[in-house]
Amino acid sequence: FCTLCLQECLKPKKPVCGVCRSTLSPGSRALDLEKQIEMTETTCNGCNKKMYLSKMRSHAASCSKYQNYIMEGVKAVTKEPLHNTRNFPNRFTFPCPYCSEKNFDQEGLVEHCKTLHSMDAKQVVCPICASMPWGDPNYRSANFMEHLQRRHRFSYDTFVVCDYDADEDDMMAQVLMRSLRDK
Fold this sequence. Notes:
This protein is mainly alpha-helical. Among the domains are: 39-77, no CATH class; 94-158, no CATH class. The chain is 45% helix and 5% strand. The chain has helices at 3-10, 31-39, 53-62, 64-77, 106-116, 127-130, 144-151, 156-159, 168-182, and strands at residues 41-43, 50-52, 124-125, 140-141. The strands form 2 sheets. A two-stranded antiparallel sheet has the order 1-2. A two-stranded antiparallel sheet has the order 3-4. Strand 1 and strand 2 (50-52) form a beta hairpin. The longest helix is centred in the C-terminal third of the chain and has 15 residues, at 168-182. The mean pLDDT is 79.
């Protein structure tokens, strides 16, 4: 987990697990999980070297063949950018729906709203969702701050190569092809 996610789990009066949301005991560690990670073998997708799962992160950071493997995957699903962008909605910067301050990236909008509008109960349209092909520009969130925390903690583009013009079947086909190459 990243620090921000862990901090969210520890905020309540009774801290909770980031996965199952059960109450955490102070200072308790998942020793069974640590042992499983120490004893589970895996293979590097770059160099095919066998190692324990606990060593994989440091290995992947230094394995040039693994880095090449990742870049090949990115190239396989990345398409050439379209040159005519006039008809495409802006999915990179957003106005604040409360005060209309402009040009926030997704993380900036979340932080701005947490800092300045956390107590504002006015129902507003999420500008991030409204910019997406599946978004409804007229839908007003009953609890916008909760929506931001749950849906927009991270940018989609950080974790996936987004092709907003591809339909669901095309995206599923790309995922299946990539998974077959990974074996």
